[in-house]
Amino acid sequence: MVRRTWSAIRMDMDIMPDSTIYFSKYYVCFKGVRDGWIEGCRKVICVDGCFLKGLCKGELLAVVGRDTNNNIYHIVWVVVNVENKVNWKWFLDILVDDIGGGNGNGLTIISDGHKGLLEAVKERISEAEHRQCVRHVYANFKKKFDGEHYRKLFWVVVNSTIVPQFKEDTDGIKKLDPNA
Fold first, then answer.
1. How far is residue 45's CA from residue 140's CA, in Å, rounded to a whole number?
2. Taking CA 45 as the corner, what is the angle to CA 105 and CA 60, rounded to the nearest 5 degrees?
3. Which sequence spans correspond to the domains of the chain?
4. Where's the MULE transposase domain (predicted)?
5. Burial of 138 by CB count in 10 Å (0-12 exposed, 13-18 middle, 19+ buried)?
């Protein structure tokens, strides 16, 4: 693994046929933050995006980990014009190079399950464990199975720590509705 001795900042532009130049993507990873994550945090990262709705439209993509006190540890941020597979691949290529992630072996990624991100992870860091954020899983579950009983049982299942307990807890949800 080659360790960079500097911060990584990258900006890409799109040149239109009429020679107009537009901002496309912006990546920032400060050396001290990156090194701190590499040296002191678990190799688990959470990746997500949010809309920028001010004067400059686009999306902010962020990568965070957890430090030894289980606090949020910001690692990288990116601004892109849209959250899609192309931009996720661009982002992951630079990120993996920065953190020395190679093909993703030993790295776990938690995300909202955005289709473009799922595909980009498979292509760029195929050895990484990729898991979905339980809050997003619950939001989808709630669309079909709403109500206090489902909510309580869902979170019981989520907190199951061993396989026999997980199976027993999922059976509780299946008693309400076999499709759940």
1. 22
2. 125
3. 8-132, 133-180
4. 44-140
5. middle
Residue where the block lists tokens 């931009």: 87
Q: Which of 138, 150, 152 is CA-nearest to residue 174?
A: 150
Tell me how far apart the alpha carbons of residues 174 and 135 are, in angstroms, rounded to a whole number: 20
pTM of the model: 0.79
Tokens (6 digits) for 163: 């396989």
Beta carbons of 25 and 11 less than 8 angstroms apart? yes
Q: Who contacts 175 (Cβ-Cβ below 8 Å, separation ≥6)?
A: none
Tokens representing residue 75 in the block: 């690692």
Taking alpha carbons only, the member of 111, 72, 73 closest to residue 92 is 111
